[in-house]
Amino acid sequence: MTPIIGVVGGGQLARMMLPVAARLGLRLVFLARPGDAVAAVWPDVVEGEPDAAGLRRLAERVDVITVEHELVDLDTLRALAGEGLAVRPSADTLDVAVDKVRQREVLGAAGVPMAPWTLAGDLDAIGAFGAEHGWPLVLKRPRGGYDGRGVWMVDDAAAARAVVDEVDGAALLVEPQVALTGELAVLVARRPGGETVVYDPVETVQVDAMCREVLQPPRVSAVAAERAHDIGRRVADAIDSIGMLSVELFVSGDEVLLNELAARPHNAGHLTIEAAATSQFENHLRAVADLPLGAPTARGPAAMVNVVGGDVDPYERLADALAAEPDVAVHLYGKDYRRGRKLGHVTATGPDLDRARHAALHAVDVLTMPAS
Ligand SMILES: Nc1ncnc2c1ncn2[C@@H]1O[C@H](COP(=O)(O)OP(=O)(O)OP(=O)(O)O)[C@@H](O)[C@H]1O
Ligand SMILES: [Mg+2]
């Protein structure tokens, strides 16, 4: 029998699992809050927080637990696994995924290439690192950052001091600013027992340290793409990931370095819904249910552009966007409009990357700007 899958979280990643579950007839139960993106459209929701009480209530209803975000009580996940519940990915994998310092410790030991780094407890340590490796530096909160919140580029000690003050002296991950020629993400699906499929790397384009576009194929050298592929597989094995894994990578010419990883479906993989033989959401659920994985094969050039809250609620502009770009796939997550918030995305496929990119960007412009 196919297991009943419990998903911790009810945001857009959870919501994008629903069409797959409906098609394959998989039974999903979400641990979510009443206002979350899945709550409005799916009957099987356990209301609660991802804490001990919430996780235990979810566990009573399901055969296997997975997550759509990493901010989960890992001690309880460990305890549930000890009591015989399948937890995929494991608490140990999530423990690495939630912490950019742990990622560097564990994956450095596994031979994954990365920029020099240190964990600095004060301004002197940051200064010493800058003196050794050169400014500018990048300072990061080891945990809890997203969409560039918790990442600061600093040119000198004065700028670093402002960040140290802002975080009240908490320890910061320090890296040199890499001379980027691009960024990649490589998606990997891995099943219990180790069956693995690796998607061809995609290019990610960040604006103000927040992902704006994802492009397939990436505009990087064949050598860089091949290296990204190898790193993806190596990371998945090193942390024993189950389900989807997204590894974000810095590219500098042919050199490819680790940025960070997420042990779940990820924004970089949204275009797999329309532009791969098997979407990341499908392969996540297949892996978690221990079903055979689907082919990751790309279906040709594609571009995904995020819909970030602009001057207008995108729902007001939906009809205009659909009329303006009838070939693109518009995804709106049902979230309340707020400026700067990720509210949806648009994916366009073919015939070439340039045209896909322009169509997706145009649709997003219409969705985020008031009618003139
Ligand atoms: N050492 C570095 N050198 C150059 N650019 C960097 C460096 N570290 C981070 N960046 C830039 O900042 C972006 C965000 O960094 P990171 O991925 O660590 O942040 P995040 O907030 O956790 O990300 P996400 O938006 O994926 O949640 C990177 O994609 C990259 O563009
Ligand atoms: Mg990132």
Describe the model.
The chain is of the alpha+beta class. It has three domains: 5-87, Rossmann fold; 116-176, ATP-grasp fold, A domain (Dna Ligase, domain 1, 2-Layer Sandwich); 182-368, ATP-grasp fold, B domain (D-amino Acid Aminotransferase, Chain A, domain 1, 2-Layer Sandwich). The chain is 32% helix and 26% strand. It is built from 13 helices and 18 strands. It has helices at 12-15, 18-24, 52-59, 74-82, 91-97, 100-109, 123-133, 157-166, 222-238, 272-275, 280-288, 318-324, 353-368; strands at residues 5-8, 28-32, 45-47, 64-67, 86-87, 118-120, 137-140, 151-154, 172-176, 182-190, 196-198, 202-207, 210-216, 243-252, 255-262, 302-308, 329-332, 342-349. The strands form three sheets. Strands 10, 11, 12, 13, 14, 15, 16, 17 and 18 form a nine-stranded antiparallel sheet that branches. Strands 3-2-1-4-5 form a five-stranded parallel sheet, covered by helices on one side. Strand 4 (64-67), helix 4 (74-82) and strand 5 form a beta-alpha-beta unit. Helix 12 runs antiparallel to helix 13 (353-368). It starts with a strand and ends with a helix. The model has no long low-confidence stretch (mean pLDDT 97). It binds adenosine-5'-triphosphate and magnesium ion.
